């Protein structure tokens, strides 16, 4: 059978069930067909995670009941089962509502750094280093392994997943802003912040990193603008 909606995969910790967007009746049918093929194999198996693009709590409980009561599987407590919704589309739609020109303008005005600005109209790839005495604006993404270094602000109109060093000449008023702020390392002046070891949710709105009370803090662009 061609499982278009449901995918089972396993590792040493248990089974992970990934569910795509679709009618609940079709999802349950695919799950049951899959389990019926190897009922003895799945009996007593541990389900580590159930993830779905649009899986709400009630749908999760319905699936759990089938796995446990009909097929004898062991499902982690609901508090431990991660319901992963596909936020990528939501983030993209919300970001489109923020006009890029005004975003750049507001970020450059935020700390009076409307001076020299270098615009990069491409994705910054792994291994690339871009340095500039002024502001850097990237009209694209910064991939892991890509490095930006600016004496002023750094603004990324995409996903920042590499390294960003703003205020490289010691300016602690410098900012780092991105539509999706997910850097492996941030540095503003001499203050450094690294990506946490644990997995965190991707930001749904543009965010701004700045120095506050001697450490780098991150705030929502929308929250910042709402105070004006």
Keywords for this structure?
Alpha-Beta Plaits; alpha/beta; elongated; 228 residues; 6-stranded mixed sheet; single chain; Pectate Lyase C-like
What does this 3D model show about the protein?
Keywords: Cell cycle, Cell division, Septation. Belongs to the MinC family. Interacts with MinD and FtsZ. It comes from Andreesenia angusta. It holds the Pfam family MinC_C. The chain is an alpha/beta fold and 228 residues long. The protein folds into two domains: 6-85, Alpha-Beta Plaits (2-Layer Sandwich), CATH 3.30.70; 117-220, 3 Solenoid (Pectate Lyase C-like), CATH 2.160.20.70. It is built from six helices and 15 strands. It has helices at 24-37, 39-42, 57-70, 88-96, 100-109, 221-226; strands at 6-11, 14-19, 46-52, 74-75, 117-120, 129-132, 135-138, 147-150, 154-160, 163-166, 176-181, 185-188, 191-194, 207-212, 215-220. Strands 5-7-9-11-14-15 form a six-stranded mixed sheet. Strands 6-8-10-12-13 form a five-stranded mixed sheet, with no helix packed on it. A four-stranded mixed sheet has the order 1-2-3-4, with helices on one face. A hairpin with a 2-residue loop joins β14 (207-212) and β15 (215-220). The longest helix has 14 residues, at 24-37. The chain is elongated. The relative contact order is 0.09.
Task: Indicate the CATH topology of the largest domain.
Answer: Pectate Lyase C-like
What oligomeric state do these chains adopt?
Answer: single chain
Rounded to the nearest angstrom, the radius of gyration is 23 Å
Strand ordering within the main sheet: 5-7-9-11-14-15
Low-confidence stretches: 78-92
Q: Residue-averaged pLDDT, rounded? A: 81
- What is the architecture of the largest domain at the second tier of CATH? 3 Solenoid
CATH class term of the largest domain: Mainly Beta
Q: What count of structural domains?
A: 2
**Quantity of strands, as a count:** 15
N/C terminus separation: 57 Å
Beta-strand content: 25-35%
Order of helices and strands: EEHHEHEHHEEEEEEEEEEEH
Number of helices, where a helix is a run of at least 4 consecutive DSSP H or I residues: 6
Largest sheet: 6 strands, mixed
């Amino acid at each position: 059978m061609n499982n278009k909606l449901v995918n089972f995969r396993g590792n040493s910790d248990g089974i992970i069930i990934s569910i795509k967007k679709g009618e609940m009746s079709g999802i349950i049918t695919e799950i049951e067909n899959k389990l019926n093929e190897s009922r003895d194999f799945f009996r007593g198996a541990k389900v580590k995670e159930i993830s779905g693009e649009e899986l709400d709590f009630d749908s999760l409980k319905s699936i759990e009941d089938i796995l446990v009561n009909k097929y004898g599987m062991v499902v982690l407590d609901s508090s431990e089962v991660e319901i992963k919704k596909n936020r990528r589309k939501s983030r993209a739609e919300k970001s489109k509502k923020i006009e890029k020109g005004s975003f750049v303008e507001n970020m450059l005005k935020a700390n009076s750094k409307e001076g020299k600005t270098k615009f990069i109209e491409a994705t910054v790839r792994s291994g690339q280093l871009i340095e500039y005495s002024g502001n850097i604006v990237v009209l694209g993404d910064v991939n892991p392994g890509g490095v930006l270094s600016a004496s002023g602000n750094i603004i990324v109109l995409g996903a920042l997943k590499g390294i960003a060093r703003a205020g490289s000449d010691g300016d602690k008023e410098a900012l780092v802003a991105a539509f999706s702020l997910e850097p492996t390392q941030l540095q503003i002046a001499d203050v450094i912040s690294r990506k946490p070891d644990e997995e965190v949710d991707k930001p749904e709105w543009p965010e701004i990193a700045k120095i506050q009370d001697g450490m780098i803090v991150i705030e929502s662009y929308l929250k910042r603008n709402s105070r004006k």
